[in-house]
Amino acid sequence: MNKLQLRKLLENYRTPFEEESLFIDDFIALTHDDLAFSRQRVQGHFTASAWIVNRRRTHALMTHHRKLNRWLQLGGHADGNENLLEVAMKEAQEESGLTSLRIVDVSIFDIDRHIIPANQKDPEHFHYDVRFLIEASIDEPLVISPESKDLAWVPYETVEDLVGNQPSILRMLEKTSKSQMVI
């Protein structure tokens, strides 16, 4: 995948969730920026995430992010790589140690634009996060990376208790709930 292929995926992306559809055009516009995949674009840049679920769609793999101190999906910066699916898979493997990761669909699963607070190195900025649906074996041992405080397979029915009101995570959960799956 390169930025032209990403742009095409974004142009064809449809969602029934209004909050997501509101920023599709911003994602498309960002693909025209030469620094879109780099942290050098300080006002905001692309990131990629993996919404990792077990095959039976009963659990999601969540990380307790060390810097943000919140439970999130796994993912990270593109650091110049335009292939966001590749970035999502690399981050998922690095942050979990899982080898059973399997891409469910090469299409975009979800998108979210969110503010990252300023820290000692970076000013406040946006992440334009492109998410992909990934499956993994719930029985494989997990390896917690230095970027995480914890890592856990969270039952769907307790995800909201863990993450609170994080609309994009709840949206991904809804997209993969058994009532939403077409098998």
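Second entry:
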Amino acid sequence: MLPVGPQSGKSLRPWQGLDIPQLLKQFSISPKKTLGQSFLICDHVADKIVAAAGHDDVAVEIGAGTGMLTVRLASHYKNVIAIEIDQRLKALHNMITADFPNVVFVYEDFLKWIPRPTEIPTVVGNLPYYITTPILEKVFFQMKPKTMVFMVQKELGARMVANPGSKTYGALSVFVQSFTKPEMLFHVTKNCFYPAPEVDSVVVKLEGIYGYEEVVDPEVLEHVVKRAFQQRRKMLRSGLKKEPLLLKKAEEAGIDTSLRPEQITVEQYVRWATLVKCQNTA
């Protein structure tokens, strides 16, 4: 059973202004490159992320790390489920649960973790670049949160919020915008992490707009979008000439096939994928 009540009366002071590198050294923990570990060390960034997430009953944190976000979420939410794959951090996390009994740490690969309850209102996390899409798929389709606040690499964030016609608009843009309303919140320099990564990050907020999944299979949508963007510099009719069925369904969806993939809106891709799904199930 989860503990009850946000710990709004609990002072965050012991958890503010921490020397994260020294804290890790105290617990004999060295960041692992294989896990993509770069720990957040800037209090003001953690404060802004949690403020953007708001208040609700349950929050899931992906990649708790040293607990910079965890303790702040505990002051806003009745229950916090913090997922962390690195069990070396347990001793540090025990200090957090001693102060914040409404936090539960789960030591598991997030992609293998089974959420209970399955619908969780808020998800927060610093997403590793190399598995961002699988994480988003799990969050969108298994958890269906109302609010998501993610820190991602700057380039990735730009792609998530990109508009049709821009150079950064692509398959990820269509996928994210088919199921959420994304908003770029703020920039985070690489100096706010230990060890400092090679690139800066951004924080994006996603508001769930679920419903498309009732008419289009996400796998079909992914297939259509990936095929379209395979040759993004070409017109659809040229890039898909070896896939006449996809081209036919694009025309049936009212899409001008003289357009390039980045000129097609999210709504048009969804309509196109819906017709492909109907063809497959006919």
